[in-house]
Amino acid sequence: MPYLALPPMLGVFATLCLFVGGDITNAADPVVVVTEGAIPGIRQPQVAVGNTGTIVVTFGAGETIYCCKSTDRGRTYTSPTKVGHVPKLALGMRRGPRIVAIDDHVVITAISHETGNVLAWSSLDGGESWRDAVDVNDESRSAREGLHDLAIGRDGLLFCTWLDLRNGQTQVYGARSKDLGKTWEKNAHVYTSPSGTVCECCHPSVVIDQSNAVHVMWRNLIDGNRDMYVSTSEDDGQTFGSAEKLGLDSWQLNACPMDGGDIAANSNGDLLTVWRHDRSVYSAGVGLKREKYLGRGEQPSIVAASDGDFISWVDRRGGELLLLRPGSTNPVTIATSASDPVLAASVTGGGPVVLVWESKAGDVSSIRSEIVNE
User: Fold this and answer.
1) Fewer CB within 10 Å of terminal CB in the chain, N or C?
2) Which fold has domain 12-25+35-371?
3) pTM of the full predicted structure?
4) What percent of the chain has pLDDT over 70?
């Protein structure tokens, strides 16, 4: 499907939702994780926080996946370690590697456009060394669109979800691992749209709650509406129930916005989602609940921590990276000239909450991070 330009108008949808007002203030200077001076072509960072507080950041550059680690709450990071080589690594438009961590175990997944497969690497020593990659999808070339996500539960259950083309049109599939990424089980069918295809170029998202229920979110395509849906598995990711639409309004769009949103589960088992509709970002619970307008922007990310939900997004008008902290209605500006932000906290909810993003200064790119719950 062609990548079409989006309509510029916000429309009446925003006026139906709660406007979050207030001044926007600047935060402290972020930490530079890595720059193009060290590795040319760095793109699409992702971050995970282990339950011991260790922070691990992954990113792609060309056809190589790298990993950096911080053991001092994000004040410094190690030099990048090479994880693996991926022919025609899927990068850009929210593609790229995904990462999770628990104890000393770290798992990274990524997709090869050449083979069309999801690959998984696992580390037993906190990212110092890596096993050889294994396939996650059991139908070759079915994940060639390159859009996926990865989640971990409190007991180490892993679930990876992706946009799947094994049947000729875009469906949502997934697979679980019960040995921390060493092997992956038979793929699970998550959802097929009644139109035959979900939105073809928006990444799916996944979270595992404290009861090990697996929740997958994606942008659907029904009757021309590109709305967000969620489906839940109550049996550790083996089978999935019916899909639920998020929010009350719909987005009629003859194009793909290439922006899939994010999902989080708090300690009470409540789900909260964030996603883009037109030129703005909204949040909503699961079920027929009114969505809440957060602000103009795109590329939202959310994480549930012990002190509440943190939400970030980018306002393209000035390249501002915005952060909404728990209990606040006023987002703060973390950085400018930013893109592709991602939030992370440990699966136990404690420790640091970390925000990473791509930063551009002139022609030089870097990956930066900030601890946002201090």
Assistant:
1) C
2) Neuraminidase (2.120.10)
3) 0.92
4) 93
